[in-house]
Amino acid sequence: MLHIAVCDDEKNFIASLDDLLQKYAAQTDLEIKVTPFYDGSELVEKYDTTFDLIFLDIQMNQMNGLKAAERIRQMDEEVSIIFLTTLTQYSLEGYKYQATNYIIKPIKYARLKAEMDKWRKRRPQGDSPYLAVSSPSGKYRIFLKTLHYIETFNRSLLLHTEQENIICSKSMKEMEQALRSKGFARCHTSYIVNLFFVKGVKKLEIELITGEIIPISQPKRKEFMEQLADYWGDFL
Questions:
Q1: Pfam families per the record (predicted)?
Q2: How many CA atoms lie within 13 A of 159 on its CB side?
Q3: Are strands 147-153 and 191-194 parallel, antiparallel or unpaired?
Q4: What is the Cα–Cα distance from 80 to 170, expressed in whole angstroms?
């Protein structure tokens, strides 16, 4: 199933685009779920990490599409965005937010079909593994390849990623279960590390290839070193 968000402040347009998408679904034997939003701020506030594609109007009253796209890219690096506009002048600006394309309104079915066909061909077939987490600042889809390590922080967790640090309300035990057999290891009561980023271990310190240093506890050192040896062995 494809989960598509449509964000536009014209309700009639959203209904029309929904009809076109369902027509496309019927012709291609796909199941498409459409979730409507009527302003960029609503899309950002209720963002769902299961979205595969977003049709996003640029011109909206409260939060325009470009501002919404900027915020979405902080939460989700890989969701596809197709901008909707009546003005071609916005198209180049939209590509700053890794837009898949832009469509000039109103939309005819032939144009939508061509765009959907092209998007499906370009779309990666294998999904990158990720964590979906909620934080006080919103919902995030964090791809495991960008997650360096996790540490406890004020009764929450702090996820250190390539882009930013994100607070998450999950417990360390829940996170350890979610990351089991995915290249992560618990090295300390308060730390889980992505083995891909480990450069070396010296006494009770782990050095990451990023230069970051995190602790390893004596009780967990033996098991951690065995997990690291197994991981490195798979790549040697």
A1: LytTR, Response_reg
A2: 28
A3: antiparallel
A4: 27
pTM comes to 0.63
Burial 61-97 (b: 16+ CB within 10 A, else e): eebbbbbbbebbbebbbebbbbbbbeeeebbeebeeb
| φ/ψ (deg, to 5) at 99 | -65, 140
Q: How far apart are CA 200 and CA 158, in angstroms?
A: 22
How do the domains of the chain map onto residue ranges? 2-122, 130-235
Residue 106: asked if its preceding bond is cis (omega within 30°), the reply is: yes
Going 152 to 157 to 160 to 164, the CA torsion angle's sign is: negative
What backbone torsions phi and psi does residue 53 show, to the nearest 5 degrees? -150, 140
> Measured on CA atoms in the order 149, 152, 154, 156, is the torsion positive or negative?
positive
CATH for the stretch 130-235? 2.40.50.1020
User: What tens digit of pLDDT does each residue of 39-86 get?
Assistant: 999 999 999 888 999 999 998 888 889 899 999 988 888 899 999 987
Confidence of residue 126 (pLDDT cuts 50, 70, 90): low
Q: Which CATH class is domain 2-122?
A: alpha beta
- Listed residue (228, 199, 227, 226) closest to 214, CA to CA: 199
Cα–Cα distance, 22 to 44 (Å, whole number): 24
